[in-house]
Specification:
Order of helices and strands: HHHHHHHHHHHHHH
CATH superfamily: MetI-like
Distance between the termini: 68 Å
Largest sheet: none
Main location: membrane
Keywords: Cell membrane, Membrane, Transmembrane, Transmembrane helix, Transport
Family: Belongs to the binding-protein-dependent transport system permease family. CysTW subfamily.
Protein name: ABC transporter permease
Oligomer: single chain
CATH topology: MetI-like fold
Membrane topology: Multi-pass membrane protein
Length: about 300
């Protein structure tokens, strides 16, 4: 029987078989490959190829050699700079977690005007240039800066302190710059935790602190993990803030790599330094992930 014109108009249009699989909610393999192809090409061109080229340059100069890696191990200066970079990254990450978690908790639980004020305090510095924020710390910490003048006027000290171009200044400035990257993941994790969980724990006899430590804090560990990874990776690769606030006395790996490429023009050695820094970063990320999985397992057992 032939279909009428009205029936043809009302008949559903069958999708192409290569677009969808049997389930209407799933794409076929062909369409999936088409959708991820642009992102895959961008990832290959912007990340995989530069990293591969970097590693190749560090071992092929012009033939295969491990001379530059042996140089890093044999000369104490480079290992010292690497260890100090990792130490600074760990301290900045812990400081960002210590000061950022209460802000994230308030940001997740507050409402109305308080929530708007807290969100503004987090986002406005994030939208400001890192260069501007670093120069602001120079104004605060220099010998005739606001902090030294305040100490002298209050009688805490009689002469200006050396606050700028020190490792402490680098840690303080980097913590200020990176704290939003800790606050936002933790705030997002806290917002996914129903407030009824903590109230139920208090109804069962737990105090505010005990309910927080046994319920809220363990459930916010994924946000803490994400924030720590972001802060640590950004901290050990920071260039602008240590160069401006720390100076030559607080040399870090990013600054050292910049000197090798821009001043000494030793690109293979700079590539070896960058490869070592990248490998160290991956090891720490895997360690963070393993620690998080172990913590989840212990919480599930408890």
């Amino acid at each position: 029987m032939s279909m009428t014109t009205d029936n043809l108009a009302l008949a559903p249009i069958a999708p192409a078989s290569w677009l969808f699989s049997h389930s209407s909610r799933r794409y076929s393999h062909a369409l999936t490959l088409v959708l991820i192809a642009p992102l895959s090409l961008l990832l290959a061109a912007g990340f995989v190829y530069p990293i591969g080229r970097l590693i190749f340059l560090s071992v092929m100069a012009p033939e295969f050699t491990l001379e530059y890696y042996e140089r890093i191990i044999s000369e104490p200066l480079y290992l010292y700079v690497l260890l100090r970079t990792l130490q600074t990254g760990v301290i900045v990450t812990l400081a960002s977690l210590l000061f950022g978690y209460p802000v994230a908790y308030l940001m997740a639980r507050a409402k109305g005007r308080t929530a708007m004020i807290v969100a503004s305090a987090v986002f406005v510095p994030l939208w400001t240039s890192v260069l501007v924020r670093s120069y602001a710390w120079i104004v605060l910490l220099q010998r005739n800066g606001i902090v030294n003048n305040l100490f002298i006027e209050t009688g805490i000290v009689t002469s200006p302190l050396k606050l700028l171009y020190t490792e402490g200044a680098v840690i303080v400035a980097m913590t200020h710059v990176l704290m939003p990257f800790m606050i936002l993941p933790i705030c997002n994790a806290l917002r996914t935790i129903p407030s009824e969980y903590e109230r139920a724990a208090r109804n069962l006899g737990a105090g505010h602190i005990d309910a927080f430590l046994r319920v809220t804090f363990p459930l916010s560990l994924p946000g803490i993990f994400a924030g720590c990874v972001m802060c640590f990776i950004l901290a050990i690769g920071f260039y602008i803030t240590p160069a401006l606030v720390g100076g030559p006395g607080a040399l870090m790996m990013a600054t050292l790599i910049g000197q090798q490429t821009l001043v000494l023009l030793d690109w293979p050695f700079a590539a070896a330094l960058a490869t070592v820094l990248l490998t160290t970063t991956l090891v720490f990320v895997l360690a963070f992930r393993k620690a998080l999985s172990i913590s989840k397992g212990m919480n599930s057992v408890n």
